[in-house]
Amino acid sequence: MDADGRRDGRRAALVVLGAVVVSLVPWTVYLSLALPDEHLETNWALVWTGFDSALAALAIGTLAAVWRRSDATALLATALATALVCDAWFDVTTAAPGDELVVAALMAVLVELPAAAFSLRVALRAFAARPAAQAVSEKPPSTTRV
Q: Any stretches that span the bilayer, and where are they (predicted)?
């Protein structure tokens, strides 16, 4: 791809990501004012089993990528870390007061967040170990691609 194509891709990424950032602030404020404090979810079991199934698939994919020394390791480990943080957040914020909240908080602090930190470490090490990453990091910032 020529320099103009890279520049156009970078410009498009800046515009789209900038629009996402700018729109998320008022949207979040709106949601905080508009949403009810409580909501009965009719698909509660499906929500959690679906999310945990996706989490398991990411863990399996990350394990396989590490085993195979795949170029996908950094991406999969980053996605796994993100999903683990989301899991901890939703477990704690949706738990009922009492024992359920204590268990959710303990799981977050002792299992999910440490696993997320470890997954992020795996991602960073995998990215740093790639020859392409080393070559990109040695180029001047104006020539790196998005």
A: 12-33, 45-67, 74-90, 102-124
